[in-house]
Specification:
There is one protein chain. 47% of the residues lie in helices and 19% in strands. The protein is an alpha/beta fold. It folds into two domains: 1-175, DNA polymerase, domain 1; 176-259, Beta-grasp domain (Ubiquitin-like (UB roll), Roll), CATH 3.10.20.30. Strand 2 (99-104), helix 4 and strand 3 (129-134) form a beta-alpha-beta unit.
Amino acid sequence: MDAFLLVIDAFSDAAEPDRDIQNLMDEMILIDQAMIESNIDKRQRKMKLTGDKAEQRELDLLKRCLGKLEEERPLIDLDFGLEESRIIRGYQLLTCKPVLIVINVPEEALAEVESFAGRFQRFAESGKREIAVMCGKIEAELVTLKEEERAPFLEELGIGTPAIDLVIRRSYALLGLISFFTTAGPEIRAWTIPGGTPARRAAGVVHADMERGFIRAEVVSYDDFIEYRTPAALKAAGKTRLEGKDYMIGDGDVILFRFNV
């Protein structure tokens, strides 16, 4: 997995969300600390028995990580080089992963969503830990409604964006992900890629042949696609762009890949 989503009780009479968040973060630090201490011990014993110094670099990296954990800080706060990241990834350490903290509030607290979010900002740090506030009860009721009934229901409660949409957006932002779309007749499909992906590599997400035989990408922005609807109308309005293999895909781009294999 790439991230943690912690859903925190802030609705029950016994709720202590500040305590619960801190306890969960502390628990992950302790688990990582035990894992690293065990691996440091194994490597030190191996080096003592064999005299092999080949693992010294990894041992030094583990000791550096242990030092951060002993400061009660998660490993995501460390800056790793490419080779260091490759080594650490193999350990699947919990605190290397970003965290989305979802505060589950009662219905009567919906009017105070912003103040709830602000209360927990001390846990947040851009790109590492994010906060989202939702009411699980409302979301459960939304699932039972027909599509045409949802907008009036949300408007009555004064909710602009359903919480599930907010959670998805925050999750994407936390992981540095974007979506682009492809169309084939009436079907529209969304594809998830890291931000900063060039067009040729994005084509390979759809199909390996598209990447191998890439010629160009015909690109339309999401807003223009919604407004003009058809390829003919988009071209007539000058909204279709031709982009090469190095074009960086934008969030919401609607793309037709031209290729030949």
